[in-house]
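Sharing a chain and its predicted structure for anyone who wants a worked example. Both blocks are below, sequence first, tokens second.
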Amino acid sequence: MIPETYVSDLQLRLGLYRRLSTLETDTEIDAFGAELIDRFGPLPSEVRQLVKIMAIKVLCRRANVDKVDGGPKGIIVSFRDNSFANPNGLVAYVAEQASFAKVRPDMKIVFIRDVAEPNERIKESTTILRDLVRIAERKAA
């Protein structure tokens, strides 16, 4: 959330949320964060977290990921319609992960990681999603 103490005008906050929801690249998200700093000062922790979550959502769209669940023991990724643009690349990626990734019978991929802290989960989820985007877009190119 964008705290009222950071951006007091409700209409302006709503406009910022709308803009944030339309961003599609890391560059756009970084520019949005920089603009917030320029206009309103240093980002409070809630806004930093919001920007990180939006970056994850952008990566999910690009990799056709429907859902990412993170817990202390790892991260589970599920794909929209159980579909991925580059299935062979995905199989190779999971194989590279050796015992740290497996495909469940429901076609979700479990990445086994020790990620006890929420910030670690966000960082690890972002890393995995960046890899998935790279693999998915390699097929599309």
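Comments welcome. The domain at 64-140 is CATH 3.90.1150.50 (Aspartate Aminotransferase, domain 1).
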